[in-house]
Amino acid sequence: MSCLYITENGSKVAVKGGHFIVECQDGSERLVPKETLESIVIFGNVYLTVPCIKECLERGIAVSMFSTKGKYFGRIESTNHVNAKRLKQQVYLSDQEEMRVQFSKKIILNKIHNQRVLLTRYQRSTGKNIQENIQAIKIHENKISHCTNIEQIMGYEGNAARQYFAALSKMIKEDFKFSGRNKRPPRDAFNSMISLGYTILMYEIMGEIENRGITPYIGFMHKDIERHPTLASDLLEEWRAVIVDATVMSMIQGNEISINEFSKDEETGAVIISKNGVNLFIKKLEKKLQSNMNYLEYLEHPVSFRRAIWWQVSKIVKCIDNGNFDDYMPIRIR
Question: Of 65, 123, 223, 229, which has the fewest CB atoms closer than 10 Å, so is most exposed?
Fold first, then answer.
């Protein structure tokens, strides 16, 4: 199954026979078989015909809408998967502090482990000495194991994240150097790309959650924020480094994107990626999502990163049904 990204303003999406048809303003067309499509992601002003919308609703194909700069507007989706009994159980678990702490520790400890593994890989490939940062991350990682509440866990996670991004900045190519994680708005090219990647990935995870009869707006680790999909944010944590950060680093270190694809908005200070840069990034991110991995301990065979996300959401659903998180195992790379 694949995701269809449409970034050209003025494009039209229709249906004909067994295909979705993307008609571009230059007269060119792209045919996508209906049975291969899992979701559609739109950037900018794209027109969907009513038959196209109906087809998406009937097939459970979610349509996510973003501005050309990557701001999320909303999505069109079916409600066929809503499961009231499961939703009630999800709400109940979200109020069980001990189980929330258990879940949060699993997610964050494995997230930090994955960050350390990636840093070690980059250290070998670049020859840069970031051992001090790695050791600092290990200290915070060890402290999380002894935390008794989520506030403590997230505090140490924040400390580890600062060391992680400081280490990445030491190894990245000179044009893309940055000073830590920043957002709303991102103030450098690196943060502009990872912010876009995190947003796209979070709403992909959100679609998987909604397809399984639970809500992305009631999570177990992040605090409830109005209109924010906290469960999608929870599950995003284990994928940030292994999918988005790895994709961005690969593009930069492999000279697959130029600093000239970015510009600064003098009024807001935001660093904005160009339309061509967005296209390059989406193509690379989609390639990553379709590539195979073998990091889920409960699977004996490789699956794509996109399918692995599906499996992890399935595990969360099973945990909700069982009333505990004992069987949830976040991705752990080697």
Answer: 223
